[in-house]
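I am writing to request your help with a piece of structural work I have in hand. I am sending you one protein, given as its amino acid sequence and as whole-number tokens for its backbone shapes. Kindly check, if you would, that the fold set down in the tokens agrees with what the sequence suggests. You will find the record immediately after this paragraph:
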Amino acid sequence: MTIGAGGIHGAHCPPAPRSRGGCPDVLYLKAKGLSTHMNYRTLGRTGVKVSPLCLGAMMFGAWGNQDHDDSIRIIHRALDAGINFIDTADVYAAGESEEIVGKALAGGKRETVVLATKVHGSMGDDPNAQGNSRRWIIQECENSLRRLGTDWIDLYQIHRPSPDTDIDETLGALSDLVRAGKIRYFGSSTFPAYEIVQAQWVAERRGRERFLCEQPPYSILARGIEADVLPVCQEYGMGVIPWSPLAGGWLSGRFGSGKDNSSRRAERLPARYDLSDPANQRKLEAVDRLNEVAEGAGLSMVELALAFVLAHPAVTSPIIGPRTMEHLESQLGATEITLDPATLDRIDEIVPPGLNVNPVDAGYQPAALTESRLRRRS
């Protein structure tokens, strides 16, 4: 359905994927166990078909829903709805999230799922049990395979850059994992545009496999990547699977004048929700105006936020991170919504393109900014 300031202007069923001969690939989709009603997208130039929403598993386990059976029911409901793309990470609840995903995909469900996980974050007291070194990447890939209960990972991602590790060291390890059949593809997460370009150049010059996907933060309130990361990904044919399309809960419908204005994540990231911070006050003011846009379009804030991210031509699949079944159900319908130009223009007026309302929402600050010694001559 197409949505504008006056509500629903028209409704249509999303077109089925078409073969080169012009006929819908319904038999192909059914053979792969995929929904024939979901408009699947291609992940970059890999040829792999993924659902327009990716199920994020960060909230399964100690960081969110501690009931494993309930978390598995949520995963199964997402699969039944046509989602075939799941993203997790080793660091989520210290591996518990991966274990839950592995349980959910047991019994024959693994074959039709594009499974992604990540490496980089600290997994213990050992100083080498973190980062982007060959030693850790290869060791932790084996650990993730064990926790996930699978023989291969479809998309293995470097969770953050590591300024003390040569990117060729990282790409070399990942390339060896591809050749060993442990992973199918690999990507980056929250990399600045210049580091994405650098990695592409190094891969070409050193004969490495290359990053085929980037996972950046992107929402109506955090649009910084529109200036550089998204154009770079388009230039290199990379898939883009944005995290936090609901801006860490700010666009969940719980924020705004007279509302709760709180999030469970405030316990771990208090600065992101401190309303005494002028930057967060600006976010709250923007959310008030966005609530009006959503109401005028006949949408929930969740639907407006997800439809906005889905509208960018560089985006493959935004990552949704439900903690409850209710959260999941509130987000599934976003794939059927297309925002009209007038609504997108109103959003641009509230949060201009390329702007992070609060700079900390960029997700990563390079060492050149965080370490004063790199800005001062000794």
